[in-house]
Amino acid sequence: MKVFLKEDVKSLGKKGDIVNVSDGYARNFLFPRGIAAIADAKAENEHKAKAESEKFRLAAELDEAKGTAKKLESLTVKLVASAGADGKLYGSITNSKVSEALAQQYGIYIERRKIAVDEPIKAYGAYKLEVKLYPGVGASLNILVTDK
């Protein structure tokens, strides 16, 4: 019997998949728990349409990430911070500050969690940060920390 999974089922498939199972397993386990429904022609067509739209959406996200990566490679984000007499910054430059500056200066909005600051930036200078835009797509972002 073909069933349409409403939830992820270990050893069967993920939510939205259409799988073949025995009649007894479907009637006695899957249907009573609301985990699956009978896969008729309508459900199969909906599944195919969703899979196709998901495929196009993922391709569009990948293209957008690659375009953003190219832009980021050529940019330098300037951050202004105040420091003491010894040159150490008051506080540090964090990924959220970099994200805000990138949005202000260039209009590119990137979640702070996607910007990797390996060590806290506590001094003036130029730095390179890794930005993870999409699985398999990353970019280097140049930042410049100055006093004015």
Automatic annotation (TrEMBL):
Coiled coil: none annotated. SUPFAM superfamilies: L9 N-domain-like, Ribosomal protein L9 C-domain. One of its GO terms (molecular function) is rRNA binding. Gene3D superfamilies: Ribosomal protein L9, C-terminal domain, Ribosomal protein L9, N-terminal domain. Residues 64-146 form the Large ribosomal subunit protein bL9 C-terminal domain. Residues 1-45 form the Ribosomal protein L9 domain. Signal peptide: none annotated. Keywords: Ribonucleoprotein, Ribosomal protein, RNA-binding, rRNA-binding. GO terms for cellular component: ribonucleoprotein complex; ribosome. GO terms for biological process: translation. Belongs to the bacterial ribosomal protein bL9 family. HAMAP family: Ribosomal_bL9 (MF_00503). This is 50S ribosomal protein L9. It comes from bioreactor metagenome. The lineage of its organism: unclassified sequences, metagenomes, ecological metagenomes.
